[in-house]
Design goal:
It contains eight helices and eight strands, in the order H-H-E-E-E-E-E-E-H-E-E-H-H-H-H-H. A four-stranded antiparallel beta sheet has the order 1-8-3-6. A four-stranded antiparallel beta sheet has the order 2-7-4-5. The protein has helices spanning 3-10, 17-26, 82-87, 108-117, 121-145, 148-158, 168-175, 179-188, and strands at 28-32, 37-39, 48-53, 55-61, 67-74, 78-80, 94-97, 101-106. Helix 2 (17-26) runs antiparallel to helix 4 and helix 7 (168-175) crosses helix 8 (179-188). The protein is of the alpha+beta class.
């Protein structure tokens, strides 16, 4: 069941069966239906998670009640509210399933225990944090320097199977455009 998680880790570091068993013991399996939350903004519940099946949106709810989608996350990807998880602060983002999903999560406490039991996971952790920082920086650069159309086309190219499952409201929020403008972009493409 957790084969994809093991493959994800072993792309970067080898694991013995004993080390793998330690990881499985500390991970929690969560099933969420479409529109259920893994995390709610300003709560004290933050996880690091690996998506086995499904898709999520990470977003903030603005003061005026509108959503600003920051990221989408899909199968075989990691996701985390970094500041909340690592510094035990209230969560910054809402993380919501946008389709029926299955995810393996780990708490900060269990991750610290794993670092003691399997020290080479620290190397994997560093790689993950580097990858997350790069993704955040790339997202910022894209928002500042690319047109909405360019961002839309790159998203469709990167996630061709998932793009149709994301509704226009979520996709327009992610791109930072109105529903009407997104419809125009789609018609031109």
């Amino acid at each position: 069941m957790y084969k994809n998680l093991r493959l994800s880790i072993e792309r970067k570091i080898p694991l013995t069966d004993q080390e793998w068993n330690f990881i499985v013991e500390k991970a929690e399996f969560i099933k969420l239906k479409k529109n259920e939350f893994l995390q709610i903004q300003n709560s004290n519940s933050s996880y690091e998670g690996f998506i086995l099946k499904g898709a999520f949106k990470t977003y903030i709810l603005n003061d005026n009640g509108t959503e600003s989608v920051i990221f989408f996350s899909f199968e075989n990807e990691w996701m985390c509210d970094l500041e909340s998880f690592y510094h035990q602060k209230p969560t910054t983002y809402n993380i919501k399933a946008i389709e029926d999903s299955e995810i393996l999560v780990i708490s900060k406490t269990n991750k610290a225990i794993l670092f003691e039991q399997v020290p080479k996971l620290i190397q994997f952790h560093i790689i993950m944090v580097e990858k997350a920082n790069i993704a955040i920086q790339q997202r910022l650069i894209d928002v500042l320097n690319k047109t909405s159309k360019q961002r839309y086309l790159e998203f469709i190219e990167k996630h061709p199977q998932k793009a149709d499952k994301i509704n226009n409201r979520n996709l327009s929020s992610y791109l930072g455009v109105s529903h009407e403008f997104l419809s125009k972009i789609k018609k031109r493409c």
